[in-house]
Amino acid sequence: MQSNTVTLKLIAFKPEALTVKAGTAVTWKNEDGTDHSVTSGVVKQEGGGVKDTPDGKFDSGTLGAGKSFSFTFASAGTYTFYCKFHPATMRGTITVT
Ligand SMILES: [Cu+2]
């Protein structure tokens, strides 16, 4: 059975890469005791740090401990996302076929 859940645990997305069919709702669940976010966009290295640029496709906003966020992917494509609080380490990709 196809899994469509990503957990946020130990300052990481698990799994970091997930492939789903178009029309699937993906749910992210924050199992940490700290705030995270699920924000679509890219993170690039810049001047010794990282710069995150949201693309506005989806954004959970601040996702507190124990909270979930879902987004339905209507169209095929590759969607990158990150956590706005931990962009250096928390990044992931949803591939929609
Ligand atoms: Cu985070």
Can you tag this structure with a few keywords?
single chain, 97 residues, mainly beta, Immunoglobulin-like, five-stranded mixed beta sheet, four-stranded mixed beta sheet, 56% strand, binds copper (II) ion
Walkthrough of the structure:
By secondary structure, the protein is mainly beta. It has a single domain, classed as Immunoglobulin-like. Helix content is 0%, strand content 56%. The chain is built from no helices and 9 strands. The strands form 2 sheets. It has a 5-stranded mixed beta sheet, with no helix packed on it. It has a 4-stranded mixed beta sheet with strand order 2-1-4-7, with no helix packed on it. A hairpin with a 4-residue loop joins strand 1 (5-8) and strand 2 (13-14). The two termini are 16 Å apart. The mean pLDDT is 96. The chain binds copper (II) ion (CU). Copper (II) ion is lined by residues 11, 36, 83, 85-86, 90.
